[in-house]
Design brief:
heterodimer, A: mainly beta, 22-stranded antiparallel barrel, about 5% helix, about 55% strand, B: 13-stranded mixed beta sheet, 3 helices, 20 strands, globular
Chain lengths: ~775, ~300
């Protein structure tokens, strides 16, 4: 508590420390793509005179206050674009909007005198990775479907869940501890089923950023990560059509100006047709196997005045699947998200930028699954109404202040049952309308200041105050956020951070069921908010004019009020879920190595994570500490994209993870005089998560043939054929293990189920 | 045409590959220390019986009852200053075709007494106490239902009606005695006696799987339905009674019941067995009182 007040004190001091000098001028404006008018997020603006810089925000806006000089040298750069240098002679504040050209000729090593983007070294922010969109579009994926979540699972500190389950794990956190936002709307289930497809159509994506530590104060509500996805705005200059036809799905994107250079739209949709193609090939005894998905993104934006812009975004996506497979996998699942976001940017001045948003969110997950003689039904429904405002204030080049507030009204309606399949009669189905609603509100205020002490030392000091309100319980907290950067050379720096996060929404996982049987609940009198405290320290070093970025980060994270079901919990419709839960704590620590090459014919990265994650619950495992189910010791990813020539690009990724943990009994206990209906042996479990799956590794390949010479109806069309091979050497990676008895010897035996063998794919993409 | 054929070939391969596969794997058995499994339930009027076995590594092949039995323990039962040594014995269970091994005493248990069970095995003492203070409960009636639903599913069943005593905490389960013949089968796997032939019959005893606590119906009429383990036919005669058990019996068998449900139902969290009465051993030493028997004839 004392530390929190100290941080607040420093923050107040910092905020009162800034002054506005009459000898300064402010340069501000927007950085955009010259062809399409798309805002470039995270572009670097660098002043060569004073060696200070800024980066564009999520709307492409920047502002930089500089000491006056006869001539100011400005460099504007962004990965994948040709940098621009400008020498300007200004005596007063100026608006400088920049349009950057794409660097199409990536085969040649372009000699750039200008400085390349070195945000990873220069900025105080740590634990953040901008996902390279190039890799997003070229890396091989199942069925030829580009997948944001598959790519981020190749980054250090990020692990996938089970193959075929949703979610990812960041620095030992559970899947619900990741906040995934699409244009500020929360996506509760960001995967499509089996992990085959991404929820996010990459043709409609402008920027993807993952934050796993040193969280800025404007983010909160989750313990482990923020995945911020920004949609494109649409081509402001010309109408464009792009799409793709694949084996399993097709997509189409339409974009264009509403009014040239003033407003634009983008509509992008996708639908799978596995259900139609597969039906003739599915064996009769598995005739219920079926799967389809669709998603639709739409965004409209308009510049009302020089100071005002409005945006309207929509997203809807649905998965519907039925599966009759191996003896332990029979299910039907239907889940989807619907979101709508309205945003208004306003420039109060060239130093004060604001964004105000209204967001609606509707999520549901309906699962019916039969395993053995038992059937489980589950429904998880969430509706959010959210209003927020975020302000950026840049009083001078030493301070960048962010302040904001966020209010959301949440409605939860979860229900779950598990019963033996009746010999006759029908099974009562869960009806969403009849599930009792639980209401709560969340409020948050934040304030932060990014302080540039001098050329070598900078810090971001902030605080976030979240509040949870419901009829049964109220909670509030003070979350200090601090990062510090010290440059050790022009191309290297050391950074440290401390953050506290609170989470009022919880996903309760089942430890044993094979499928996503997790349900969302909110905090209550019984279910306290989860809290994390994370310390991290890193060294960042770039080479070859920032063409190669490297980093080593160490982290230590504690998590309290973690949630699991009690032993022997049998979910029924009538039981209060809160009473079925048990609470504990978690601890995760590790080391992450990352090396990334951003330029040239060969681009990609190498990442290695060494980590440990344990949990302790007084009601589980006899109160002793046990490994987290996704405690995977080693995690290696090698990613490469190589342009062979103008026509051919090859891409590959290889991943290796140590096996996750699962529980098997160690002994069997004979019991007589029990008179039970079943066998007389019971299981002696000595420890939870006491066994490990075999390690997981997989190689994916893709070969892309570019054709830029196609013409349709007199229009030049860019097209490409993508040939992919997922799991190229068909490694049968473990999905789960179950116990059974050999019918002949009566000896117990273990069986391992694997899900995805080698999967070839071909797709054709076009753009005009 | 060739292009279409190629695309179709790739499509078929991809689609057929979308089926999961299973294989047997070798699980390396982790070091496991065998413990004792102890069950001794005493009731006034009956001689004491102790079932004493050892736990086994999970992946071991099945062994006979004799191999699991621990015959070389020193077992005593003490009450009111009198100590009786229990001796090993066995009985052949005709229906199952197996021997059951146990320790037994000679002196019948008395009501309203405190008993101390002590097992000395390999130099270690395992000791627990029980009091035979349970009241005999009156079974009001026994009926039959064609179809009832519980957490285990839908079944036909026998319904018990009794009135609970509000003054104390009670824990109930049923006990049933009947004849079994070559047509009788047992359990979900429909086990039939390998020994009985032609018109031979044998007496069998069945104890309820579920043990009910009176927490939610204290002092009221309590009705519960059970699905018998031994399958019946119309006209079969049984003698049913209610056991009124102590808390130790309730906690032990309720935990086993929860674990069995978790083993059968993959959506239920696994249940770890806890050593309660005996340190470093699993088991129960408890007391129960059994009601008078009621004749029940299956109507169908």
């Amino acid at each position: 508590m004392r530390a929190k007040f100290k941080i607040l004190f420093v923050l107040i001091l910092a905020c009162t420390g800034f002054t506005v000098s009459a000898q300064k001028i402010t340069i501000s404006g927007y950085v955009k793509d010259a062809d399409t008018g798309e805002s470039l997020i995270g572009a670097t603006i660098y002043n060569t005179n004073h060696k200070v810089g800024a980066i564009t925000n999520n709307y492409g806006f920047y502002t930089l206050s500089l000491q006056k000089a006869d001539t100011l040298g400005m460099v504007f750069s962004y990965i994948g674009y040709l940098p621009q240098t400008k020498k300007i002679a200004v005596s007063k504040d100026v608006v400088l909007n920049i349009n950057l050209l794409t660097s199409n000729n990536s085969l040649d090593e372009v000699v750039v005198n200008a400085k390349r983007n070195d945000n990873n070294v220069r900025e105080a922010q740590m634990g953040v990775i901008d996902v390279p969109l190039r890799q997003l579009k070229t890396l091989p994926a199942i069925g030829g479907e580009n997948d944001i979540l598959k790519v981020i699972q190749l980054l250090p500190g990020v692990q996938s869940g089970k193959e075929g389950t949703t979610g990812f794990h960041v620095r030992g956190g559970n899947t619900d501890q990741n906040l995934v936002q699409l244009d500020e709307a929360t996506i509760y289930n960001p995967n499509h089923l089996f992990g085959l497809f991404s929820t996010f159509n990459t043709n409609a994506i402008n920027n993807v950023k993952l934050i796993k530590g040193g969280f800025p104060a404007e983010y909160g509500g989750r313990l482990s990560s923020i995945l911020e996805i920004t949609m494109k705005e649409g081509n402001k200059n010309n109408f464009a059509v792009s799409g793709g036809i694949g084996l399993l799905s097709s997509n189409l994107t339409l974009e264009g100006p509403i009014k040239k250079e003033k407003g634009s739209f983008i509509i992008s949709g996708r639908r799978s047709y596995f259900d139609i193609l597969a039906k003739p090939f599915i064996p009769k005894n598995k005739n219920n196997t079926n799967y389809y998905l669709y998603d639709l993104n739409a965004k409209f934006n308009y510049t009302l005045t020089d100071k005002d812009r409005v945006y309207l975004s929509f997203f809807t996506g649905l998965d519907d699947a039925k599966y009759t497979g191996a003896s332990s996998l029979n299910y039907g699942i239907n889940f989807g998200n619907k979101t709508a976001t309205f945003r208004w940017n306003h420039l109060f001045s060239n130093k004060i930028f604001s964004n105000t948003s209204l967001i609606y969110n509707d999520y549901h997950n309906s699962l019916t699954t039969a395993q053995g003689n038992y059937i489980a039904q589950q429904y998880s429904g969430i509706r959010d109404l959210n209003a927020k405002t975020d302000w950026e204030i840049h009083p001078n080049s030493k301070h960048s202040i962010k302040i904001g507030a966020n209010y959301s009204y949440n409605t939860f309606f979860p229900a779950t049952t598990a019963n033996k399949i009746p010999k006759k009669g029908t099974i009562a189905t869960l009806k969403p309308d009849s599930i009792p609603r639980k209401y709560s509100s969340q409020l948050a205020f934040y304030l932060s200041d990014e302080i540039q002490f001098n050329e070598f030392l900078s810090a971001t000091i902030g605080v976030r105050v979240p509040v949870f309100l419901s009829s049964k319980a109220n909670y509030s907290a003070i979350e200090p956020r601090a990062t510090l950067k010290a440059s050790t050379s022009p191309t290297s720096s050391i950074k440290a951070s401390y953050t506290e996060m609170n989470q009022f929404l919880h996903l309760v996982p089942s430890s044993t069921a094979s499928l996503p049987t997790d349900i969302w609940i909110s905090s209550s009198k019984v279910v306290k908010p989860e809290v994390s405290r994370q310390y991290s320290l890193g060294w960042f070093k770039n080479f070859d004019n920032n063409a190669i970025e490297t980093s080593v980060e160490a982290y230590y994270k504690t998590m309290s009020n973690q949630v699991l079901f009690k032993e022997g919990t049998l979910p029924t419709v009538d039981t209060d879920i809160d009473q079925q839960l048990t609470f504990g704590k978690g601890e995760s620590y590790g080391l992450e190595f990352f090396a990334k090459k951003n330029f040239g014919r060969l681009t990609g990265w190498l990442s290695y994570t060494l980590s440990w994650t344990n949990q302790t619950f007084k009601d589980l495992n006899y109160g002793k500490t046990f490994p987290f189910a996704y405690d995977k010791r080693h995690n290696i990813s090698v990613v490469a994209t190589y342009d062979l020539n103008k026509k051919w690009t090859v891409a590959a990724d290889w991943v290796f993870t140590s096996g996750g943990a699962f529980t098997l009994p160690q002994g069997k206990v004979p019991v007589f005089e029990g008179g039970t209906l079943y066998d007389i042996f019971y299981n002696d479990y000595t420890q939870r998560n006491n066994f490990r799956y075999r390690s997981y590794h997989r190689l994916d390949l893709s070969f892309i043939h570019h054709n830029r010479e196609l013409t349709w109806f007199g229009k030049k069309v860019e097209s490409e054929w993508v040939f992919g091979l997922y799991n190229a050497y068909s490694r049968m990676n473990p999905y789960f293990v179950y116990l059974t008895v050999d019918p002949l010897t009566k000896k117990p035996m273990a069986k391992e189920v694997s899900l995805l063998p080698v999967l070839p794919s071909v797709s054709w993409n076009f753009k005009f | 045409m060739k292009r279409i054929t190629q695309i179709l070939f790739v499509s078929v391969i991809s689609l057929l590959a979308m089926v999961s596969c299973e294989k047997e794997i070798i699980i390396k058995q982790q070091p496991y220390t065998s413990k004792l499994s102890i069950q001794c339930l005493i009731t006034p009027g009956s001689i004491p019986k102790l079932f004493l076995n050892r736990t086994l590594p999970f992946m071991n092949p099945p062994v006979s009852n004799r191999e699991m039995f621990v015959p070389d323990a020193n077992v005593t039962l003490e009450t009111s200053g009198t100590t009786e040594k229990l001796v090993t014995d066995s009985v052949f269970q005709i229906f199952f075709g197996t021997y059951s091994y146990f320790y037994r005493g000679a002196t019948p248990i008395e009501a309203n007494k405190n008993y101390t069970l002590t097992i000395n095995y390999k130099g270690v003492d395992y000791s627990a106490t029980a009091s035979t203070i349970q009241q005999v409960v009156k079974l009001d009636s026994v009926t039959y239902v064609q179809n009832f639903k519980d957490i285990y599913g839908e079944h036909e069943g026998v319904v018990f009606h009794l009135k609970d005593d509000p003054a104390v905490s009670n824990y109930y389960r049923y006990e049933m005695h009947r004849s079994a013949d070559t047509a009788t089968y047992w359990g979900e796997n429909k086990f039939k006696s390998p020994i009985l032939k032609n018109n031979e019959t044998t007496r069998v005893t069945e104890i309820g799987r579920t043990i009910f606590s009176d927490t939610s119906f204290s002092g009221s009429i309590f009705t519960f339905a059970i699905e018998p383990v031994f399958k019946h036919k119309q006209g079969d005669e049984t003698y049913v009674m209610i056991q009124n058990c102590d808390k130790n019996i309730f906690e032990f068998y309720d935990e086993l019941d929860k674990q069995m449900l978790a083993l059968k139902n993959p959506f239920v969290e696994p249940v770890f067995l806890v050593s309660r009465q005996f340190k470093d051993a699993y088991g129960v030493f408890g007391s129960y009182a059994v009601s008078d028997s009621v004749l029940f004839v299956y109507p169908e």
